[in-house]
Request: fold
Amino acid sequence: MSNGLVPTAIVAIAAAPRTRRTNYPEPFASRVAGREKRPLGDVFGLSAFGVNLTRLAPGAISALRHAHSKQDEFVYILAGRPLLRTDHGETQLAPGMCAGFRAGSGDAHHLINRTSDDVLYLEIGDRTPGDAVTYPDDDIAAVLDPEGRWRFARKDGTPY
Amino acid sequence: MSNGLVPTAIVAIAAAPRTRRTNYPEPFASRVAGREKRPLGDVFGLSAFGVNLTRLAPGAISALRHAHSKQDEFVYILAGRPLLRTDHGETQLAPGMCAGFRAGSGDAHHLINRTSDDVLYLEIGDRTPGDAVTYPDDDIAAVLDPEGRWRFARKDGTPY
Reply:
C-alpha cells in the first residue's frame, strides 16, 4: 500500500541506481567505475541521513580513502568479501559484518573489492552541514567554489 | 585491527544486546518482550544516528505503532517476513525489502512478526533533538518531566 507520495516499502535491489556515478575528476573517476549506488532513503523522502545499497564489481573501490570532519558513516556487508582499509591497515569483511566511521576521527577509510565476486553493502551517512573531506592517499582536495559548492582540485589548489 | 578505542569492524550479531529492553510501562512492555536490539552504531562511537540490529521473536512487535515529529527512520529486512503496519494498512515485507519513515509525516508505523520464525532487521534513526512521538492505537503519550526527560503517561496525563 502507498500513501500516494512515496511507496510504503520497496525491494531494495529494484531501486533505481544513481545516474551520476561520481563527482571525482580523472584519474580517480575510473577507480570507482565499478561502483553502483542505489539511494534508498531518498525513495522515502528521508532528509536527515542517506542510505545507499551499493555494489562493487570486482576491482572496484567504494571511494577514495577519505575521512569526514562532521558526518558519521556506517556500512553493513550484505554479500561478498571486501577489504576495509583504514589508517590502521586492512581488515577482511564478510557478510553480516559492519563498521562505523566516526566524524572527526581523522581515520580515513574505504572498501576495496579484490575478489572475483560482487560486493553488496548498505552505507549510511548523515547530512550534517559544514562537512569537509580529506584524502590522505591521493592528490585531491575538496574546495568551496565562489558559489559555495564543493569542487575537486589538487592539494596545491590547482584545478583538474 | 583496532585504533585502541573502538573496533575497526565487528560481526553484527555478536554485538552485545541492549540490557534495558524497553521504557514502555505495562501492559505495553510485554508486547515487545520478544524484541532484542543490538546497538551497532554506538560500538563505533557514532552520534548523529543510531543503527540497531533487531530481532523479533514470533509474536513480537518492533514498537507500539508510532510516528516521530523530527526523526527519520529506516528499516532493512535481513531475515524473516514481518508485516509493516501503517495508517494505510498492512504490507508484507521479506528479506531484501526496506522502508523509510519520514519525520513529521504523521503516518504511524511498526513491524509485527506473525510468523513462527525470527525476524532480523537493521533499523536506523537519527538523533535530531526536540523529537516527539505519537501513538495512535494505544493510550500512551510521551511527556517531558520537570527534569526534561521523557516519561510515559496516559493520554489524559495520568501516570501509569
